[in-house]
Write a structure and sequence with these properties.
The chain contains 3 helices and 15 strands. By secondary structure, the chain is mainly β. It has 2 domains: about 170 residues, no CATH class; about 45 residues, no CATH class. The strands form 2 sheets. Strands 1, 2, 3, 4, 5, 6, 7, 8, 9, 10, 11, 14 and 15 form a 13-stranded mixed beta sheet that branches. It has a two-stranded antiparallel ribbon with strand order 12-13. A hairpin with a 3-residue loop joins strand 14 and strand 15. Helix 1 packs parallel to helix 3. The radius of gyration is 19 Å and the shape is globular. The N terminus is likely disordered.
Length: about 220
């Protein structure tokens, strides 16, 4: 699937960050989407499919798997992947953008979560406070065919995860999962739409609320 971003500047985003101190390893701060690695079916673009134990690394925003030796590795040929199905959700992969987690599906669109990681060096301000320097996307991460090998850091870094909620249309176009996009999906009157949002206290930056709104907008009328 070819994904086309529409109106990127208007995307609602949520950012989380942690500071990893010098002398520490990035791998010590790994966290995952699921509590444990799960059986996942990986569908490749050439029609092949395989099953691996996988989980999504929430720090580096990459999919990882457990090989036959029990090692946890990062997928290095992700450009060959079409989709991954695991637990109650699936992922699609775009070579330029990364992984999109699909959390709800209808005939008209899918609700997706896009997570992006960046690693920026931190310097000390005049009063000793942490200050983020710009211009560096990844710090001390070594990519190999066996996966990503975190190295011991020689300076503090700010690890930032940016989460964006999207509606992916059947055409492959993506829109910010905001009121305007949901209204088009709802295809009903604005009064009843606003009443549902208010009555259910929908927060457009919360996954559970967005899933509720998605099902409301796509249910048979």
């Amino acid at each position: 699937m070819v994904l086309v971003l529409q109106g990127v500047a208007g995307y609602a985003q949520v950012s989380d960050h942690i500071v990893i101190p010098a002398g520490d390893s990035i791998s010590n701060h790994y966290s995952y989407l699921f509590p444990s690695f799960k059986e996942a079916k990986v569908n490749f673009r050439d029609g092949r499919s395989f099953t691996y134990k996988m989980d999504f690394n929430m720090l580096i925003c990459e999919m990882q798997y457990i090989n036959t030796k029990g090692d946890t590795l990062q997928i290095t040929n992700a450009e060959l992947i079409d989709s991954i199905r695991m637990d109650s959700c699936s992922f699609i992969y775009d070579y330029q953008k990364g992984y999109f987690q699909i959390v709800a599906v209808s005939d008209a669109a899918s609700l997706a979560i896009y997570r992006r990681a960046s690693f920026l060096p931190v310097s000390k301000g005049g009063m000793g406070e942490n200050r983020q320097d710009g211009g560096v996307q990844m710090v001390n991460l070594m990519n190999t065919r066996e996966g990503t090998r975190p190295m011991v850091l020689d300076q503090d870094i700010n690890a930032v995860r940016t989460t964006t909620y999207l509606l992916i249309l059947k055409s492959g176009e993506m829109e910010n999962a905001g009121k305007a996009a949901f209204m088009k999906l709802y295809n009903g009157d604005e009064k009843s739409f606003d009443h549902y949002i208010k009555a259910n206290k929908i927060n457009l930056n919360q996954q559970d609320d967005l899933e509720k709104l998605f099902h409301f907008c796509t249910q048979p009328k």
